[in-house]
Write a structure and sequence with these properties.
With 434 residues, the chain is an alpha+beta fold. The protein has helices spanning 6-18, 42-45, 57-70, 114-127, 147-150, 163-167, 184-190, 199-206, 223-237, 241-250, 316-324, 338-345, 402-417, and strands spanning 74-81, 84-95, 100-101, 108-109, 259-260, 284-285, 293-294, 312-314, 359-360, 366-372, 375-381, 386-392. The strands form three sheets. The chain has a seven-stranded antiparallel sheet with strand order 3-2-1-12-11-10-9, with helices on both faces. Strands 4-8-5 form a three-stranded antiparallel sheet. Helix 3 packs antiparallel against helix 13.
C-alpha cells in the first residue's frame, strides 16, 4: 500500500503508538504534501498481523512454547518467499517494564549478521573498481598503507593479508589472549589507558602482535578482521563507514531504519527494544574500566565499536528486504551484480567461510548467524526461495549455540506450515488485520 499524504502516515503512527507497539518514524517524511514514489519505509507502516490466517495457529503456539522454554522476552519473525514478504510478526515483549509489545517494526541488535552488510559493501566497491578482493590490505601497495598502521607492525606476514582473507576469516588473527573487540578493559589496563581506545588506536595496539598463522592458509573466526574491513570501506570510499553504508548499500536496498548500535538503554533508537540477559546472569564490570557493575548487555562490551563486525540494529522486515536485494532473484532488484551474488554464495568445502555468510551449501541453503549478550539472530535462506529470519532480545545460556536450536525450529515449522503461509507481499502492501 502507498500512503499518499503525510496525514495518513501520521494517523497510522498514532494508531501504532496507542496500541503499545514499536514504531520507528523518520521525521523527514512528516509535513510533506506527497510521499515520494520510493520503496515503502517498512518500519513506518508494518504492524503485527492480527488476522486469523487459517493453518497458522499452531505455528504461533509453537513459537510461544519455544520462547517459554528458552525464557525469551521477545521475538521478531519475518518469512519471505521469492522476494515477497509473506509474514512478519512480533511475539512477547519489546520492553516488558514499559508495557511495549514486540512488533515487526521493532529494531534490534543483529550482532554478526552485520558482517553480511559489510561484505556486501566490499562487493559494491569492487564492482565500482575501487578495490579488488585480491588486493593486499597492508604493505607498500596495500589499501591501509598509511603509517598510522604500518609503523607499528613487526610481523612481515601482515603484508600478505588480502581483502578476501579478511572476508573469509583467513587473515591470521585468532582470539589468543582474548578477542580484542570484547577485551576493552584488559586492553586499557595493559596499555595504561584512561579511556577506551577508539578503533584506530585499537588497531594500532593489536597490529603490534604477530599473526598466529600465515594468511590464507587456515581460518579462525575474527571480529577484528571485519573491523579492518569497515576501515577499508572508509579508506576506499572517502566516507565514514555508516554514511557509505546508508547511502550506497542500505537505502538502495530499501532499508531506511538501520543504524550502528549504542551501548546503553538510555541511548536506544526510536523503536529499539530493551535487551535482556539470561535469568542467572551476573553483573559485570563496565567495559570502560569505570569500576561500575553493569548488565552485560548494557555496558559489558563496547558494542558500538564493533562497527561492521557486529554493531548494526535493524528490524526483521528490513533485514528480509536487504537479503532480497543480494540474493540474485529478479523480483526485487539486486544492489550487487549476479557475479557478486555468485561470489558471496560460492561453496568450496565445509571448512571455508563464505563471503559475509557463515555458510553457503551447494544445495542453495545460506546461513548467517549473530549473537551478542541480549540478542540472537538467525537468517536462513533455503533452496526453494524461502527465507526465515528470527531475532530475539534475550540471551540464553547456550550463547552462539542457540541459533542451532532456532534452525531446528525453522525446519519443523517449514515442514508443517510453509504451505499455509499467505500469498501476498508485505514489502508493498499491509496485512489485513480484520
Amino acid at each position: 500500500m502507498k500512503l499518499k499524504r503525510a496525514g495518513a502516515a501520521l494517523s497510522l503512527v498514532a494508531i501504532l503508538v496507542l496500541a503499545g507497539i514499536c514504531v520507528s518514524l523518520n521525521s523527514s517524511s512528516i509535513g510533506q504534501e506527497e510521499v515520494p514514489e520510493v520503496p515503502v519505509r517498512l518500519n513506518e507502516v508494518i504492524a503485527n498481523d492480527t488476522a486469523d490466517i487459517p493453518g497458522l495457529r499452531g505455528m504461533d503456539a509453537a513459537i510461544e512454547k519455544y520462547m517459554a522454554y528458552w525464557r525469551l522476552r521477545g521475538v521478531s519473525l519475518s518469512i519471505m518467499r521469492n522476494d515477497s514478504l509473506l509474514l512478519s510478526r512480533g511475539y512477547g515483549w519489546a520492553d516488558k517494564e514499559k508495557g511495549v509489545e514486540m512488533s515487526p517494526a521493532c529494531i534490534m541488535r543483529v550482532a554478526s549478521v552485520s558482517k553480511l552488510l559489510t561484505a556486501t559493501a566490499i562487493m559494491k566497491l569492487q564492482e565500482a573498481g575501487r578495490l579488488h578482493l585480491k588486493d593486499t590490505v597492508f604493505g607498500p601497495s596495500g589499501i591501509l598503507r598509511d603509517t598510522t598502521y604500518t609503523s607499528v607492525m613487526k610481523d612481515p606476514l601482515y603484508n600478505l593479508i588480502t581483502v578476501e582473507d579478511l572476508l573469509r576469516h583467513k587473515g591470521g588473527f585468532t582470539a589468543s589472549g582474548g578477542d580484542p573487540m570484547f577485551s576493552t578493559r584488559t586492553i586499557m589496563i595493559q596499555n595504561h589507558l584512561d579511556t577506551p581506545p577508539d578503533n584506530i588506536e585499537l588497531m594500532r595496539i593489536y597490529l603490534r602482535r604477530r599473526l598466529r598463522f600465515r594468511p590464507g592458509t587456515s581460518q579462525y573466526y575474527s571480529n577484528f578482521g571485519y573491523l579492518l574491513l569497515s576501515k577499508i570501506v572508509e579508506e576506499v570510499s572517502g566516507l565514514d563507514y555508516e554514511t557509505y553504508m546508508r547511502d550506497s548499500v542500505l537505502v538502495p536496498a530499501g532499508c531506511f531504519d538501520m543504524h550502528i548500535a549504542h551501548n546503553y538503554y538510555e541511548e536506544r533508537y526510536p523503536g529499539e527494544v530493551k535487551y535482556y540477559n539470561g535469568a542467572d546472569t551476573l553483573l559485570v564490570e563496565e567495559f570502560n574500566n569505570s569500576g561500575r557493575l553493569v548488565e552485560r548487555c548494557y555496558g559489558g562490551s563496547d558494542i558500538r565499536s564493533l562497527s561492521g563486525a557486529g554493531a548494526w540494529v535493524t528490524s526483521t522486515p528490513e533485514l528480509a528486504r536487504f537479503v532480497a536485494s543480494i540474493d540474485g532473484r529478479p523480483e526485487v532488484p539486486d544492489i550487487i551484480s549476479r557475479e557478486s551474488v555468485a561470489a558471496m554464495t560460492e561453496w568450496f568445502d565445509p571448512e571455508t567461510y563464505s563471503l559475509g555468510w557463515n555458510d553457503t551449501k551447494p544445495t542453495g541453503e545460506w546461513t548467517r548467524t549473530g549473537t551478542l549478550s541480549g540478542t540472537s539472530a538467525l537468517v536462513k535462506y533455503y533452496p526453494d526461495g524461502e527465507c526465515w529470519i528470527m531475532v530475539t532480545n534475550t540471551s540464553t545460556w547456550k550463547g552462539p549455540g542457540f541459533t542451532n536450536y532456532t534452525a531446528s525450529l525453522f525446519k519443523r515449522l517449514r515442514e508443517r506450515y510453509s504451505a499455509a503461509l499467505p500469498v501476498r507481499d508485505l514489502f508493498h502492501e499491509q496485512p489485513n488485520d480484520n
